[in-house]
Design a protein that fits this description.
heterodimer; A: 117 residues; mainly alpha; B: 415 residues; alpha+beta; seven-stranded antiparallel beta sheet; four-stranded antiparallel beta sheet; 9 helices; 19 strands; 24% helix; globular
Chain lengths: 117, 415
Amino acid sequence: MNHANLPAGFEALEVFTSDWVLPDAVARMGKRQASTMEDIKRFYHAMLPQGVAALEYLKQFALGALPPEGERLLKLMLALAEVAPAVEWYNNQRVTDGFSVQRIRYLRQIPDNTVQA
Amino acid sequence: MNEMGKPPVPGIGLTAKYPELGTGPVDTSIYHEPEIFAKEMEAIFKRSWYMIGRTDQIPKPGDFFTYELPGFRLAVLVCRDRDGNVNAFHNVCSHRGNVAEHRAEGHCNGLFTCRFHGWSFDLQGNLARMRDEEGFFGADKSKMGLKKIPMDIWEGFIFVAPVDEPYQTLTEFLGDQGRDTAGYPWGACTQSYQFETEIGCNWKLAVDSPSEVYHIPVLHPNSAAPTMMAAGNPHGRLLDVELKGPHRTNSHYSVLAEPKPVQKLAYFHAQAAQNVVQSDLEYEFPKGINPTRSPWWTVDLITFFPALSFTLSAHMYTAHQVWPLSANRCLYQQRVFVRPAQTAAQRFGQENTMVEFRDVVMEDLSTLERIQRSLDTGQIKQFYYHDHELALRHQHQAVTDILAQYDREQAGKSV
Protein backbone atom coordinates (compact mmCIF):
# COMPACT_ATOMS: atom_id res chain seq x y z
CA MET A 1 0.00 0.00 0.00
CA ASN A 2 1.26 3.40 -0.95
CA HIS A 3 1.29 6.03 1.80
CA ALA A 4 2.98 8.71 -0.27
CA ASN A 5 1.37 12.13 -0.09
CA LEU A 6 3.26 13.44 -3.10
CA PRO A 7 4.07 12.19 -6.60
CA ALA A 8 7.05 9.90 -7.06
CA GLY A 9 10.31 11.80 -7.04
CA PHE A 10 9.25 14.30 -4.39
CA GLU A 11 9.80 12.10 -1.34
CA ALA A 12 12.15 14.68 0.17
CA LEU A 13 9.21 17.06 0.50
CA GLU A 14 6.89 14.63 2.30
CA VAL A 15 7.95 16.02 5.64
CA PHE A 16 6.45 19.42 4.74
CA THR A 17 2.99 18.27 3.69
CA SER A 18 1.47 18.36 7.17
CA ASP A 19 2.45 22.01 7.75
CA TRP A 20 2.53 23.61 4.31
CA VAL A 21 -0.38 22.08 2.37
CA LEU A 22 -3.03 24.69 3.15
CA PRO A 23 -6.54 25.40 1.89
CA ASP A 24 -6.08 28.79 0.25
CA ALA A 25 -4.05 31.99 -0.12
CA VAL A 26 -5.37 33.47 3.13
CA ALA A 27 -4.25 30.41 5.08
CA ARG A 28 -0.83 30.58 3.39
CA MET A 29 -0.47 34.24 4.29
CA GLY A 30 -1.34 33.43 7.91
CA LYS A 31 1.08 30.51 7.97
CA ARG A 32 3.97 32.73 6.81
CA GLN A 33 3.20 35.32 9.46
CA ALA A 34 2.90 32.68 12.20
CA SER A 35 6.07 30.73 11.30
CA THR A 36 9.60 31.29 12.48
CA MET A 37 12.13 32.33 9.85
CA GLU A 38 13.99 29.14 10.67
CA ASP A 39 10.96 27.05 9.62
CA ILE A 40 10.32 29.22 6.58
CA LYS A 41 13.90 28.90 5.40
CA ARG A 42 13.96 25.15 5.96
CA PHE A 43 10.86 24.86 3.75
CA TYR A 44 12.13 27.34 1.15
CA HIS A 45 15.55 25.71 0.78
CA ALA A 46 14.02 22.24 0.48
CA MET A 47 11.49 23.38 -2.13
CA LEU A 48 13.72 25.51 -4.31
CA PRO A 49 15.91 22.75 -5.81
CA GLN A 50 12.74 20.77 -6.64
CA GLY A 51 10.93 23.75 -8.12
CA VAL A 52 11.65 23.12 -11.80
CA ALA A 53 10.81 19.42 -11.48
CA ALA A 54 7.61 20.24 -9.62
CA LEU A 55 6.49 22.68 -12.32
CA GLU A 56 7.39 20.17 -15.05
CA TYR A 57 5.16 17.66 -13.28
CA LEU A 58 2.35 20.21 -12.83
CA LYS A 59 2.51 21.23 -16.50
CA GLN A 60 1.07 17.84 -17.42
CA PHE A 61 -2.25 18.62 -15.79
CA ALA A 62 -5.09 21.05 -16.22
CA LEU A 63 -6.43 22.55 -13.02
CA GLY A 64 -9.21 20.38 -11.68
CA ALA A 65 -7.62 17.29 -13.21
CA LEU A 66 -4.81 16.85 -10.70
CA PRO A 67 -4.63 13.63 -8.71
CA PRO A 68 -4.62 14.21 -4.92
CA GLU A 69 -0.84 13.85 -4.65
CA GLY A 70 -0.41 16.36 -7.49
CA GLU A 71 -2.75 18.81 -5.78
CA ARG A 72 -0.64 18.59 -2.63
CA LEU A 73 2.49 19.31 -4.66
CA LEU A 74 0.75 22.33 -6.22
CA LYS A 75 -0.20 23.61 -2.79
CA LEU A 76 3.39 23.26 -1.61
CA MET A 77 4.47 25.36 -4.61
CA LEU A 78 1.80 27.97 -3.81
CA ALA A 79 3.18 28.12 -0.26
CA LEU A 80 6.64 28.63 -1.77
CA ALA A 81 5.26 31.63 -3.66
CA GLU A 82 3.91 33.03 -0.39
CA VAL A 83 7.16 32.69 1.57
CA ALA A 84 9.52 33.75 -1.23
CA PRO A 85 9.51 37.48 -0.38
CA ALA A 86 10.09 36.64 3.30
CA VAL A 87 13.35 34.95 2.31
CA GLU A 88 14.40 36.84 -0.83
CA TRP A 89 13.31 40.40 -0.04
CA TYR A 90 12.93 40.89 3.71
CA ASN A 91 14.69 38.13 5.66
CA ASN A 92 11.62 38.44 7.83
CA GLN A 93 8.06 37.13 7.77
CA ARG A 94 6.84 40.68 7.58
CA VAL A 95 7.40 43.35 4.99
CA THR A 96 10.21 45.56 6.27
CA ASP A 97 8.61 48.44 8.17
CA GLY A 98 5.46 47.60 6.22
CA PHE A 99 1.74 48.09 6.63
CA SER A 100 0.49 45.10 8.62
CA VAL A 101 -0.74 42.39 6.29
CA GLN A 102 -3.04 41.27 9.11
CA ARG A 103 -5.09 44.40 8.43
CA ILE A 104 -6.11 43.33 4.94
CA ARG A 105 -9.22 41.29 4.15
CA TYR A 106 -9.38 39.08 1.07
CA LEU A 107 -12.73 39.42 -0.71
CA ARG A 108 -11.82 37.18 -3.64
CA GLN A 109 -9.17 34.55 -4.26
CA ILE A 110 -8.34 32.35 -7.22
CA PRO A 111 -9.26 28.78 -6.22
CA ASP A 112 -6.19 26.55 -5.99
CA ASN A 113 -7.39 23.71 -8.16
CA THR A 114 -10.44 24.69 -10.20
CA VAL A 115 -10.55 24.83 -13.98
CA GLN A 116 -10.14 28.40 -15.29
CA ALA A 117 -11.63 29.87 -18.45
CA MET B 1 18.44 40.39 -20.39
CA ASN B 2 17.27 42.94 -22.82
CA GLU B 3 18.98 43.04 -26.18
CA MET B 4 18.10 46.57 -27.17
CA GLY B 5 21.10 48.09 -25.49
CA LYS B 6 21.16 50.67 -22.81
CA PRO B 7 17.85 52.49 -22.38
CA PRO B 8 17.79 56.26 -22.11
CA VAL B 9 17.56 57.80 -18.65
CA PRO B 10 14.48 60.04 -18.58
CA GLY B 11 15.23 63.66 -17.96
CA ILE B 12 13.77 66.41 -15.82
CA GLY B 13 11.12 68.45 -17.62
CA LEU B 14 7.75 66.74 -17.22
CA THR B 15 6.25 69.56 -15.15
CA ALA B 16 7.41 72.15 -17.67
CA LYS B 17 4.98 70.68 -20.19
CA TYR B 18 2.14 71.91 -17.99
CA PRO B 19 3.09 75.43 -16.92
CA GLU B 20 -0.38 76.08 -15.50
CA LEU B 21 0.47 73.71 -12.64
CA GLY B 22 3.40 75.81 -11.42
CA THR B 23 6.42 74.45 -9.63
CA GLY B 24 6.10 75.72 -6.06
CA PRO B 25 5.16 73.85 -2.91
CA VAL B 26 1.41 73.18 -2.43
CA ASP B 27 -0.79 73.82 0.58
CA THR B 28 -1.75 70.60 2.39
CA SER B 29 -5.09 71.69 3.84
CA ILE B 30 -7.08 69.66 1.29
CA TYR B 31 -5.49 66.56 2.82
CA HIS B 32 -6.95 66.93 6.29
CA GLU B 33 -9.59 69.61 6.85
CA PRO B 34 -13.05 68.14 7.57
CA GLU B 35 -14.88 71.07 5.92
CA ILE B 36 -12.92 70.53 2.72
CA PHE B 37 -13.65 66.82 2.84
CA ALA B 38 -17.39 67.54 3.22
CA LYS B 39 -17.23 69.75 0.16
CA GLU B 40 -15.29 67.09 -1.78
CA MET B 41 -18.11 64.64 -1.10
CA GLU B 42 -20.58 66.99 -2.77
CA ALA B 43 -18.40 68.42 -5.53
CA ILE B 44 -16.39 65.32 -6.46
CA PHE B 45 -17.60 62.04 -5.02
CA LYS B 46 -21.36 62.36 -5.50
CA ARG B 47 -20.59 63.36 -9.09
CA SER B 48 -18.39 60.33 -9.81
CA TRP B 49 -18.92 56.78 -10.99
CA TYR B 50 -17.59 53.73 -9.13
CA MET B 51 -16.32 50.43 -10.49
CA ILE B 52 -17.86 47.60 -8.48
CA GLY B 53 -17.03 44.52 -10.54
CA ARG B 54 -16.87 42.95 -13.95
CA THR B 55 -19.54 41.53 -16.21
CA ASP B 56 -17.68 38.21 -16.35
CA GLN B 57 -18.48 37.71 -12.65
CA ILE B 58 -22.07 37.10 -13.75
CA PRO B 59 -21.80 35.22 -17.08
CA LYS B 60 -25.19 33.46 -17.06
CA PRO B 61 -28.79 34.67 -16.67
CA GLY B 62 -29.65 34.56 -12.97
CA ASP B 63 -26.06 35.13 -11.82
CA PHE B 64 -25.79 38.01 -9.37
CA PHE B 65 -23.63 39.80 -6.83
CA THR B 66 -24.41 42.31 -4.12
CA TYR B 67 -22.26 45.12 -2.82
CA GLU B 68 -22.49 48.00 -0.34
CA LEU B 69 -20.80 51.14 -1.64
CA PRO B 70 -18.33 52.09 1.12
CA GLY B 71 -18.98 55.53 2.55
CA PHE B 72 -22.29 55.94 0.74
CA ARG B 73 -24.24 53.24 2.65
CA LEU B 74 -25.93 52.19 -0.58
CA ALA B 75 -26.63 48.49 -1.03
CA VAL B 76 -26.54 47.36 -4.66
CA LEU B 77 -27.76 44.20 -6.38
CA VAL B 78 -26.31 43.44 -9.83
CA CYS B 79 -27.64 40.58 -11.95
CA ARG B 80 -27.88 39.28 -15.49
CA ASP B 81 -31.40 38.84 -16.85
CA ARG B 82 -32.74 36.34 -19.36
CA ASP B 83 -32.06 38.71 -22.26
CA GLY B 84 -28.39 38.78 -21.27
CA ASN B 85 -28.52 42.35 -19.96
CA VAL B 86 -26.79 43.42 -16.77
CA ASN B 87 -29.16 45.22 -14.37
CA ALA B 88 -28.31 47.06 -11.16
CA PHE B 89 -30.75 47.94 -8.38
CA HIS B 90 -30.75 49.36 -4.93
CA ASN B 91 -30.82 46.18 -2.86
CA VAL B 92 -33.80 47.36 -0.85
CA CYS B 93 -37.04 45.41 -0.56
CA SER B 94 -39.95 47.73 -1.30
CA HIS B 95 -41.97 46.34 1.61
CA ARG B 96 -39.95 47.36 4.69
CA GLY B 97 -36.41 48.05 3.50
CA ASN B 98 -34.51 44.85 4.23
CA VAL B 99 -32.13 43.68 1.50
CA ALA B 100 -33.94 41.93 -1.34
CA GLU B 101 -30.97 39.53 -1.74
CA HIS B 102 -28.77 38.77 1.25
CA ARG B 103 -26.04 36.65 -0.37
CA ALA B 104 -22.77 38.16 -1.61
CA GLU B 105 -22.90 36.37 -4.95
CA GLY B 106 -24.39 33.36 -6.61
CA HIS B 107 -27.07 32.20 -8.99
CA CYS B 108 -30.80 32.50 -8.56
CA ASN B 109 -33.58 30.73 -10.42
CA GLY B 110 -35.09 34.00 -11.58
CA LEU B 111 -36.37 35.43 -8.31
CA PHE B 112 -34.69 37.29 -5.47
CA THR B 113 -36.62 36.62 -2.28
CA CYS B 114 -36.35 38.87 0.75
CA ARG B 115 -35.64 36.83 3.88
CA PHE B 116 -37.80 39.08 6.02
CA HIS B 117 -41.36 38.47 4.74
CA GLY B 118 -40.70 36.61 1.51
CA TRP B 119 -41.44 39.18 -1.17
CA SER B 120 -39.84 38.21 -4.48
CA PHE B 121 -38.39 40.26 -7.32
CA ASP B 122 -37.48 39.09 -10.80
CA LEU B 123 -34.22 39.67 -12.72
CA GLN B 124 -35.56 42.95 -14.08
CA GLY B 125 -36.48 44.17 -10.63
CA ASN B 126 -40.24 43.73 -10.95
CA LEU B 127 -42.11 42.76 -7.80
CA ALA B 128 -43.19 39.24 -8.75
CA ARG B 129 -44.80 38.10 -5.54
CA MET B 130 -46.20 39.68 -2.36
CA ARG B 131 -46.81 36.90 0.10
CA ASP B 132 -50.46 36.94 1.22
CA GLU B 133 -51.15 39.75 -1.22
CA GLU B 134 -54.82 39.85 -0.22
CA GLY B 135 -53.88 41.67 2.97
CA PHE B 136 -52.24 44.66 1.23
CA PHE B 137 -55.32 46.76 0.45
CA GLY B 138 -54.89 46.64 -3.31
CA ALA B 139 -51.32 48.03 -3.37
CA ASP B 140 -50.10 48.31 -6.97
CA LYS B 141 -47.33 45.71 -7.46
CA SER B 142 -46.34 47.23 -10.80
CA LYS B 143 -45.07 50.33 -8.98
CA MET B 144 -43.24 48.45 -6.25
CA GLY B 145 -40.28 46.94 -8.06
CA LEU B 146 -36.64 47.36 -7.05
CA LYS B 147 -35.36 50.86 -7.75
CA LYS B 148 -32.67 51.02 -10.41
CA ILE B 149 -29.32 52.59 -9.59
CA PRO B 150 -27.54 54.38 -12.47
CA MET B 151 -25.23 51.77 -14.01
CA ASP B 152 -23.11 51.57 -17.13
CA ILE B 153 -20.37 49.32 -18.45
CA TRP B 154 -16.94 50.21 -19.82
CA GLU B 155 -14.69 47.46 -21.18
CA GLY B 156 -16.49 44.87 -19.07
CA PHE B 157 -16.22 46.90 -15.84
CA ILE B 158 -19.53 47.63 -14.11
CA PHE B 159 -19.81 51.18 -12.80
CA VAL B 160 -22.59 52.70 -10.71
CA ALA B 161 -23.32 56.26 -9.62
CA PRO B 162 -24.37 56.91 -6.00
CA VAL B 163 -27.10 59.41 -6.88
CA ASP B 164 -30.43 59.22 -8.71
CA GLU B 165 -29.39 61.66 -11.44
CA PRO B 166 -25.71 61.30 -12.38
CA TYR B 167 -23.84 64.57 -12.87
CA GLN B 168 -22.48 63.20 -16.15
CA THR B 169 -22.66 59.98 -18.15
CA LEU B 170 -20.06 57.29 -17.55
CA THR B 171 -18.56 58.02 -20.96
CA GLU B 172 -18.25 61.72 -20.07
CA PHE B 173 -16.82 60.82 -16.68
CA LEU B 174 -14.13 58.55 -18.17
CA GLY B 175 -13.36 61.17 -20.80
CA ASP B 176 -10.32 60.96 -23.04
CA GLN B 177 -8.70 58.52 -20.66
CA GLY B 178 -11.52 56.02 -21.18
CA ARG B 179 -11.45 56.51 -24.94
CA ASP B 180 -7.67 56.14 -25.18
CA THR B 181 -7.40 52.99 -23.07
CA ALA B 182 -10.42 51.11 -24.45
CA GLY B 183 -9.30 48.17 -26.53
CA TYR B 184 -6.61 46.88 -24.21
CA PRO B 185 -7.47 43.18 -23.65
CA TRP B 186 -9.08 43.94 -20.27
CA GLY B 187 -11.26 40.86 -20.50
CA ALA B 188 -8.37 38.45 -21.12
CA CYS B 189 -7.38 38.56 -17.44
CA THR B 190 -10.37 36.57 -16.25
CA GLN B 191 -8.93 35.54 -12.89
CA SER B 192 -8.68 37.90 -9.96
CA TYR B 193 -7.76 38.28 -6.36
CA GLN B 194 -9.26 41.10 -4.34
CA PHE B 195 -8.35 42.49 -0.96
CA GLU B 196 -9.12 45.62 0.97
CA THR B 197 -8.11 47.49 4.09
CA GLU B 198 -9.16 50.58 5.96
CA ILE B 199 -6.39 53.13 6.23
CA GLY B 200 -6.26 56.11 8.57
CA CYS B 201 -5.49 58.60 5.85
CA ASN B 202 -7.14 61.01 3.46
CA TRP B 203 -8.23 59.40 0.18
CA LYS B 204 -5.72 61.48 -1.77
CA LEU B 205 -2.76 59.97 0.07
CA ALA B 206 -3.92 56.49 -0.94
CA VAL B 207 -4.24 57.65 -4.56
CA ASP B 208 -0.80 59.31 -4.34
CA SER B 209 0.82 56.11 -3.12
CA PRO B 210 1.42 54.45 -6.53
CA SER B 211 1.31 57.76 -8.41
CA GLU B 212 4.97 58.63 -8.05
CA VAL B 213 7.98 56.39 -8.42
CA TYR B 214 10.49 58.80 -6.95
CA HIS B 215 10.19 56.60 -3.83
CA ILE B 216 11.03 53.32 -5.51
CA PRO B 217 14.77 53.05 -4.80
CA VAL B 218 14.19 53.86 -1.14
CA LEU B 219 10.84 52.33 -0.18
CA HIS B 220 11.15 49.22 -2.39
CA PRO B 221 14.91 48.50 -2.34
CA ASN B 222 14.69 44.72 -2.75
CA SER B 223 11.26 44.24 -4.30
CA ALA B 224 10.36 46.63 -7.11
CA ALA B 225 13.61 48.57 -7.32
CA PRO B 226 15.89 45.93 -8.86
CA THR B 227 13.79 45.84 -12.06
CA MET B 228 12.52 49.39 -12.17
CA MET B 229 15.90 50.88 -11.35
CA ALA B 230 18.08 48.70 -13.49
CA ALA B 231 20.22 49.91 -16.36
CA GLY B 232 21.06 53.38 -15.29
CA ASN B 233 17.79 54.82 -14.01
CA PRO B 234 19.00 55.27 -10.43
CA HIS B 235 16.17 57.56 -9.37
CA GLY B 236 13.44 55.51 -11.00
CA ARG B 237 12.27 58.28 -13.30
CA LEU B 238 9.22 57.94 -15.51
CA LEU B 239 9.04 57.79 -19.27
CA ASP B 240 6.28 60.36 -19.20
CA VAL B 241 3.25 61.74 -17.42
CA GLU B 242 0.26 62.49 -19.62
CA LEU B 243 -2.56 64.64 -18.25
CA LYS B 244 -6.09 64.41 -19.68
CA GLY B 245 -8.49 66.75 -17.92
CA PRO B 246 -8.62 65.48 -14.33
CA HIS B 247 -7.23 62.08 -15.38
CA ARG B 248 -3.60 61.13 -15.86
CA THR B 249 -1.20 58.40 -16.89
CA ASN B 250 2.27 57.65 -15.57
CA SER B 251 4.34 55.61 -18.01
CA HIS B 252 7.19 53.51 -16.60
CA TYR B 253 10.08 51.66 -18.05
CA SER B 254 12.40 49.05 -16.71
CA VAL B 255 14.55 46.22 -17.87
CA LEU B 256 14.82 42.74 -16.53
CA ALA B 257 17.39 42.57 -13.81
CA GLU B 258 18.51 39.21 -12.49
CA PRO B 259 15.29 37.70 -11.10
CA LYS B 260 15.21 36.20 -7.62
CA PRO B 261 15.14 32.36 -7.52
CA VAL B 262 11.39 31.96 -7.07
CA GLN B 263 10.77 34.66 -9.68
CA LYS B 264 12.79 32.58 -12.11
CA LEU B 265 10.52 29.60 -11.46
CA ALA B 266 7.45 31.78 -11.94
CA TYR B 267 8.66 33.62 -15.05
CA PHE B 268 10.46 30.87 -16.90
CA HIS B 269 8.59 27.74 -15.83
CA ALA B 270 5.09 28.97 -15.00
CA GLN B 271 4.44 31.82 -17.46
CA ALA B 272 3.90 34.42 -14.74
CA ALA B 273 3.36 37.93 -16.08
CA GLN B 274 6.60 39.90 -15.93
CA ASN B 275 6.70 43.64 -15.68
CA VAL B 276 9.53 43.91 -18.16
CA VAL B 277 9.97 45.07 -21.71
CA GLN B 278 7.74 43.09 -24.08
CA SER B 279 9.04 42.46 -27.56
CA ASP B 280 6.44 39.97 -28.77
CA LEU B 281 2.99 41.32 -28.03
CA GLU B 282 0.18 39.49 -29.79
CA TYR B 283 -1.95 42.64 -29.96
CA GLU B 284 -1.57 46.34 -30.57
CA PHE B 285 -2.07 48.75 -27.72
CA PRO B 286 -4.63 51.53 -27.84
CA LYS B 287 -2.97 54.93 -27.97
CA GLY B 288 -3.43 55.65 -24.26
CA ILE B 289 -1.26 52.69 -23.23
CA ASN B 290 2.46 53.09 -23.60
CA PRO B 291 1.56 56.57 -24.88
CA THR B 292 5.14 57.43 -25.86
CA ARG B 293 5.43 54.14 -27.77
CA SER B 294 8.74 53.53 -26.05
CA PRO B 295 10.39 50.19 -26.73
CA TRP B 296 11.40 50.32 -23.04
CA TRP B 297 7.85 50.58 -21.77
CA THR B 298 6.79 48.13 -19.09
CA VAL B 299 3.96 49.52 -16.93
CA ASP B 300 1.43 52.34 -17.03
CA LEU B 301 -0.48 53.70 -14.08
CA ILE B 302 -3.80 54.69 -15.65
CA THR B 303 -5.71 56.95 -13.27
CA PHE B 304 -9.35 57.89 -13.56
CA PHE B 305 -9.96 60.87 -11.30
CA PRO B 306 -10.79 60.83 -8.51
CA ALA B 307 -10.00 57.43 -7.09
CA LEU B 308 -9.62 54.54 -9.55
CA SER B 309 -6.24 53.56 -10.98
CA PHE B 310 -4.95 50.62 -12.97
CA THR B 311 -1.35 49.43 -12.77
CA LEU B 312 -1.18 47.81 -16.15
CA SER B 313 1.41 45.81 -18.08
CA ALA B 314 1.21 43.67 -21.17
CA HIS B 315 -0.27 40.56 -19.57
CA MET B 316 -1.77 41.55 -16.23
CA TYR B 317 -3.15 44.54 -14.39
CA THR B 318 -4.32 45.57 -10.97
CA ALA B 319 -7.08 47.99 -10.03
CA HIS B 320 -6.60 50.30 -7.05
CA GLN B 321 -9.84 51.83 -5.82
CA VAL B 322 -10.03 54.24 -2.93
CA TRP B 323 -13.30 55.00 -1.13
CA PRO B 324 -13.33 58.16 1.01
CA LEU B 325 -14.71 57.65 4.52
CA SER B 326 -13.72 60.87 6.30
CA ALA B 327 -11.06 63.57 6.12
CA ASN B 328 -8.53 61.11 7.50
CA ARG B 329 -9.95 57.67 6.73
CA CYS B 330 -10.45 55.71 3.53
CA LEU B 331 -11.02 52.21 2.31
CA TYR B 332 -8.34 50.93 -0.08
CA GLN B 333 -9.28 48.09 -2.44
CA GLN B 334 -6.91 46.19 -4.64
CA ARG B 335 -7.87 43.76 -7.39
CA VAL B 336 -5.12 41.74 -9.10
CA PHE B 337 -6.20 40.47 -12.54
CA VAL B 338 -4.25 37.71 -14.28
CA ARG B 339 -4.74 35.48 -17.29
CA PRO B 340 -6.32 32.05 -16.83
CA ALA B 341 -3.97 29.18 -16.03
CA GLN B 342 -3.90 26.57 -18.77
CA THR B 343 -1.94 24.15 -16.59
CA ALA B 344 -1.49 23.54 -12.89
CA ALA B 345 2.04 24.96 -13.20
CA GLN B 346 0.66 28.33 -14.31
CA ARG B 347 -1.42 28.47 -11.14
CA PHE B 348 1.91 28.93 -9.32
CA GLY B 349 2.72 31.89 -11.59
CA GLN B 350 -0.58 33.55 -10.64
CA GLU B 351 0.12 33.18 -6.94
CA ASN B 352 3.63 34.60 -7.37
CA THR B 353 2.17 37.66 -9.12
CA MET B 354 -0.38 38.26 -6.36
CA VAL B 355 2.01 37.74 -3.43
CA GLU B 356 4.68 40.01 -4.89
CA PHE B 357 2.21 42.72 -5.71
CA ARG B 358 0.56 42.50 -2.29
CA ASP B 359 3.88 42.78 -0.46
CA VAL B 360 4.92 45.78 -2.56
CA VAL B 361 1.58 47.40 -1.69
CA MET B 362 2.28 46.75 2.00
CA GLU B 363 5.52 48.68 1.51
CA ASP B 364 3.60 51.50 -0.17
CA LEU B 365 0.88 51.74 2.47
CA SER B 366 3.38 51.88 5.34
CA THR B 367 3.84 55.63 4.98
CA LEU B 368 0.23 56.79 4.75
CA GLU B 369 -0.93 56.90 8.37
CA ARG B 370 2.35 58.53 9.36
CA ILE B 371 1.89 61.25 6.76
CA GLN B 372 -1.70 61.76 7.94
CA ARG B 373 -0.49 62.19 11.51
CA SER B 374 1.88 64.89 10.32
CA LEU B 375 -0.98 66.57 8.50
CA ASP B 376 -3.54 66.28 11.31
CA THR B 377 -1.13 67.71 13.86
CA GLY B 378 -0.13 70.59 11.61
CA GLN B 379 3.45 69.45 11.33
CA ILE B 380 3.53 69.61 7.55
CA LYS B 381 1.73 72.48 5.88
CA GLN B 382 3.26 72.24 2.42
CA PHE B 383 4.29 69.45 0.09
CA TYR B 384 7.30 69.91 -2.20
CA TYR B 385 6.89 67.84 -5.35
CA HIS B 386 9.68 66.47 -7.52
CA ASP B 387 9.32 66.91 -11.29
CA HIS B 388 8.40 63.22 -11.55
CA GLU B 389 5.82 63.57 -8.77
CA LEU B 390 3.80 65.55 -11.30
CA ALA B 391 0.76 63.28 -10.88
CA LEU B 392 0.39 64.46 -7.28
CA ARG B 393 0.73 68.11 -8.24
CA HIS B 394 -1.90 67.54 -10.92
CA GLN B 395 -4.30 65.89 -8.48
CA HIS B 396 -3.90 68.82 -6.08
CA GLN B 397 -4.71 71.26 -8.87
CA ALA B 398 -7.68 69.20 -10.12
CA VAL B 399 -9.23 69.04 -6.65
CA THR B 400 -8.58 72.71 -5.97
CA ASP B 401 -10.09 73.74 -9.30
CA ILE B 402 -13.20 71.61 -8.84
CA LEU B 403 -13.79 72.92 -5.31
CA ALA B 404 -13.44 76.52 -6.54
CA GLN B 405 -15.89 75.82 -9.35
CA TYR B 406 -18.29 74.27 -6.84
CA ASP B 407 -18.03 77.38 -4.65
CA ARG B 408 -18.94 79.53 -7.65
CA GLU B 409 -21.93 77.30 -8.41
CA GLN B 410 -23.17 77.54 -4.85
CA ALA B 411 -22.68 81.31 -4.76
CA GLY B 412 -24.63 81.58 -8.01
CA LYS B 413 -27.51 79.58 -6.54
CA SER B 414 -27.81 81.73 -3.43
CA VAL B 415 -27.98 85.03 -5.31
